[in-house]
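Structure ticket #2291
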Amino acid sequence: MEQLKKNWWLLAVRGVLAVLFGLLAFFSPYLVMFSLITLFGFFAVLSGFFILTLAFLGELENRWLRVLEGLVFIAAGILVFMNPAIAVGGIMIFIAAWAIVTGLLEIAGAIRLRKIITGEWLMILNGALTIIFGVILAGNLITGAGVILMVIGIYSVISGIFILVLSFKIRNYTAK
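Resolution: structure written out below.
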């Protein structure tokens, strides 16, 4: 707990970044969408190159599966750059899955911390909010990126505020 208390400011920075990202999604949704698509494209291409490198430098057993995986990643990245509209749906599915998994992990972490800190309900609430966000996003992929970006913005601002409050609770924690 002392390490967490000593580094409370990392949570605070994460909260501030989440609020800023949420506000950016409200006021400049096309910039956010373009950024997400561009980052995903670079991620896919770079991941593909790293997977190919590992395939040729690493294990011999699954080399051709790794080569295939690397080529699929590179092709996906190139496809994103050639036709960004296709990438929007893929990115939304990825974000929805990330949110659901992250929410579950936050709830599990809060349950583990409940004997150490008070206010763990904020972390549980944030985890539940993150899961709800992921489910809503997964169920509404067709409604349009603009609406989804508003949901992302609302989620980011609320989540950022929860994280900021939690970071200050951790900073002020005293062992009982």
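Closing remark: Residues 12 and 164 are 5 Å apart (CA to CA).
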